[in-house]
Structure formats: structure tokens, C-alpha cells
Amino acid sequence: MTNLPVVFGATGQQGGPVVSKVLEDAEPSKTYNRGVDIARCDTDDRSIVKAALQGAHTVFAMTVSLYRPGGMEEELAHGKAISDEAVEAGVQFLVYSSAQGQTTIPPFGAFFHQRPKPEKSGKALACATRCYTLTEIAEVMARSSGKKLTYIQVPKEVFAGFLPAASRSALLNMLSYFEEFGYYGPDTEQLVKEAAQVEKGGADRVC
Asked: Can the keyword Transferase be found in this entry's annotation (predicted)?
């Protein structure tokens, strides 16, 4: 087994920083000599996913949300293709970027008592080390862009007008969830605190 890491979505907003973080780390960068191979991977094609995972030790995976009829089923199939082929390839660690399960939101958890959580050897981690207010986020964006930015909260129906029609409902529901329950649910602050204790490098991750 090699120490090869494989990152799905390596050119995107999640996968890109993962690649950069690995290359910035002194220990793994000695092994990889800052070399990165980029390959197209179609998660609709199991044979391509299988080939991409040959020799992989650690995998970071994320799937694209598809805001169209049947999109949820498609995304589920993509995630299952990656996880199934990772197991088949003998991958030691699979980091899957996902959303918080709805069973943590009262009273939804009560409806799942008849279906116990499946056994697993992994752990759910909050990939953030600090919680920012939207005003603080605007301030960070202003400093990095050199532009004047001010956070102003507008009514939901006004904000909805800025969103693509296909994803409008899903995005509004997601943001309403964050507002009411917290990004990672009721235990957001504690989960972020725990993540900050194990994060390597000290760089802030926003929630």
C-alpha cells in the first residue's frame, strides 16, 4: 500500500484547499515532492472511479449538489460509487465532506429510533475552527479584496431574488436551518471547539 492521497474535486473550492494544505505540510510534502497529477473523474462511471483509486491510501471526497428532479438520487449514487470503490481498493482513510444529519434536530430524531445508526469505525468531524458572524465575514472579505463591504440583512423574499431559480428553495431552506439550529446543529459551538483542538496549522476555518 502506498501513501497516495486522492482528492475528488481537486480544482474546486473544497478540494483545492485540501491539496494546498497537504503540500504545505512539511512531512507529507517530502514524500510527494510537491507533485500533483490532475485527472478527470466521472463519478457516473464506476470504472473511472475504480481507476482513480488504485493505490490510494487516503481519499478526500465531495459530491456536487444537483438541484434538479432526481438530483438527490444522483448525488447519493455518486457518493456510493466513491465509497464502495474506496473499500474495494483497500483505502485506509476516507474523508467524505457532507452535511449534518437531520436526526440531530428535535423532534426529527424521535422518528428514527426504529432504525438505529449503522455501525461504523469512523467519526464525524466539524471542519471549522471558529464561528464567525456575517458581519465579521464581510469584514474579512473587505480586507482581502480591498473593497468596502457592509453586511445588511434583507427579507427572505428579497434575498430569494438573487438566487438561481433551480436552487432557490434548497438554498433558502439551508440558510434558514443554519439560522435556527446552527451550522452543525444544536451543538455547533462545542463541535467547532473540538475541531479547533485537533486542527493542524492553526488556520481559521469558517462556520
From this structure: no
